Amino acid sequence: MGELKLMKGNEVIAEAAIRCGCDGYFGYPITPQSEVMETLMAREPWNETGMVVLQAESEVASINMVYGAAATGKKVMTSSSSPGISLMAEGISYIAGAELPCVIVNVQRGGPGLGTIQPSQADYFQSVKGGGHGDYHLIVLAPASVQEMNDFVDLGFQLAFKYRNPSMILADGAIGQMMEKVQLSDFKPRMTAEEIDAKYGSWATNGKKPNRERNIATSLEMDSAKMEANNKRFQEKYAKMQAEDVLYETIRCDDAEYILVAFGVSSRICQKAVDIAREKGMKVGLLRPITLFPFPKQIIGEMAKRVKGFMTVEMNAGQMIEDVQLSVGCAGCAVPVKYFGRMGGIIPTPSEVVQALEQKLIGG
Amino acid sequence: MDVKDIIKPENLVYEKPGMLTANTMHYCPGCSHGVVHKLIAEIIEDLGIQEKTIGVAPVGCSVFAYNYIDIDWQEAAHGRAPALATGISRTNPDKIVFTYQGDGDLASIGTAEIMHACNRGENFAVIFINNGIYGMTGGQMAPTTLLGQVTATTPYGRDAERNGYPLKITELIAQLPGTSYVTRQSVHTPAAIRRCKKAITKAFEAAMDKKGTSFVEVVSTCNMNWKMTPVQANQWMEENMFPFYPPGDIKDGSKADPASFKQN
Amino acid sequence: MTEELIIAGFGGQGVLSMGKILAYSGVMAGQEVTWFPSYGPEMRGGTANVTVILSDKRISSPIINEFDTAIILNQQSMDKFEKMVKPGGTLLYDPNGITRNPERTDINLFKIDGTKIAADLGNVKIFNMVVLGAYLKAKPVVNIDSVEKGLQQSLPARHHKLIPLNLAAVQKGYELLESVTTL
Ligand SMILES: Cc1ncc(C[n+]2csc(CCOP(=O)(O)OP(=O)(O)O)c2C)c(N)n1
Q: For residue A104, how many other CB atoms are within 10 A of its CB?
């Protein structure tokens, strides 16, 4: 185990990247996540591990630099906040289409447009449903603490390489800006050229060797039948994620009659709301999806058979609620699914959540 | 004498470069892309760098460049090839990287990416095919389309008021301190092809020697979309393109050296 | 033990760094900690505040409806946060930034003349450490050893020579805390 530190979520992303053997980071400044690149530049990891850090001319460029490096089998990442992620949408779609692994961090702020710089979860749809064009999904991890900002960098890369698919760490301004106690990870060495050849030689475009065919990183396929076969392969990959890599946490759900569903910083608020509601005699529990894609459908379906209702708490106009409704419906249940949230960069307070629970679900 | 007597190895005077694949090219007869592909294939073979070279293909007619040259390739989104090449060369400094881009790709949608890559002096070569038109999408105006030139979106000729002016992107690139070698070539005669081969070789060598960005524009024809025969297209190019895009070296020196900037 | 604290004042009073040193002291004492700042445009020239939570359990919400303790260093913050202290909670303020004294009768009120004490110690920059010392007298959530370790962790090495001065300021604040009674 690495050292115990007090760090900001954004700083931890940088430190975790260096420690997990990341080969490169390409980014463009935007609040509230600029500390990621600032920390990297101050740490000068090129002296320590050989990791490359480059400030690109735009998010369009940074995601495409990620593409180029990722296609050579390197472990590379970028980070941004909402408006920058919109600019990256094209590149992300190409990376998913070319089946390349990488990590993209979105420290969300309020939108649409330039919006606010305060925390938000309004990019849920954009992150879990695709974001760019075409039928694809990202693996989406939602950290709820600074510790998870550390842990999910490595996990994000593991899943990205397992599926040759981009992973997104979907954080928000609150998790990015807050400091918490964090147990840093041990250093993992960067992979050598020989290791990359041995592991990813079947696809990495790192120079054609005499013992293999040339590799081509592309998302283009002129023949529709072949493209459909590609699409089917992608879908199988997403189904495999659903079967093998769903992550979630339940808090006080065993005897709960009502379930709050929340991710990221909202789940922290709900944890307190659960305590307050329990003190008032309401039997409430919290389900926290950790992977937003693949979504924890199954557990929600199971819960739907025994609870009286769900309420999602989101810092958006009600986006994840659609996935909860689908999960409940798919389980053949008809319990109510309600939503409570704040927008524009406002974080709901625990007592607001309890009040909404009483008004929308328990009282109603 | 029988054919069999003639096609003996000792009589061989010309053959397909070993680095070209057996795939049939999709380019129109008369197109310059095929000639430049062949040059690149020859150069990779001459320099013995197949195992170290990574090409980045654009969006445009040359999107399928990766089907023709026997090396590892990446296919970029429209205009983004210099960003991919930056990512590749930064994390793989031992590799030789080049982009191959059209004028719509490089001088319109990808202007920011090429400018900043060249300004940072990224260590890769850029092969820039300027045919004055969008070939792949059916002959629309490109940033390099000449004033008065008829295209699908300038059916009465490019008008400066409506469409702005043709862009001499290569002259702009030459101003950037990150570039070491910037040249304009063509491939319409055997002599021009030889000169162009020298220029591309030099650009690849600059990339190998980490001299910053090297940039070769090839003024090209698109006889299909210009609606001409290949011969007419070559003639039209000499008469109309060359006065505005004169062939020759624009900068030949070293990165960050103002003295290396030679006014044309 | 869980302590939910807001520290609020002007940008430049060392509000955020005081919170950070307290949080780091908590880490050194083996506690769970969360430091959650107000960030963005409101920071520039205006008020700055930070929520610090110290606990021996996993910390839930960084957003707090009512605080166990409020440390208040200017009038805007008094107006905003006095009412957010839990009944039975604690409010500590520096009278220098205040035009209206706190009025709550259901909480424990303390004051510290941090501005003057820091000036007397010869360095106005350690104002926030004086206030921290006063707070630790009112709410002994961490001991002085942990504060010393917290300072070592949160200050860059080139500033470590200032640690004794900072600790002296904490000590002075600890000694000079005044209890206030409202009528
Ligand atoms: C984002 C985006 N916009 C538009 C297109 C459509 N498109 C494909 S190729 C092309 C123009 C290519 O022209 P050029 O770069 O001059 O290359 P050429 O085909 O002439 O060789 C366009 C506009 C696209 N593929 N992607």
A: 27
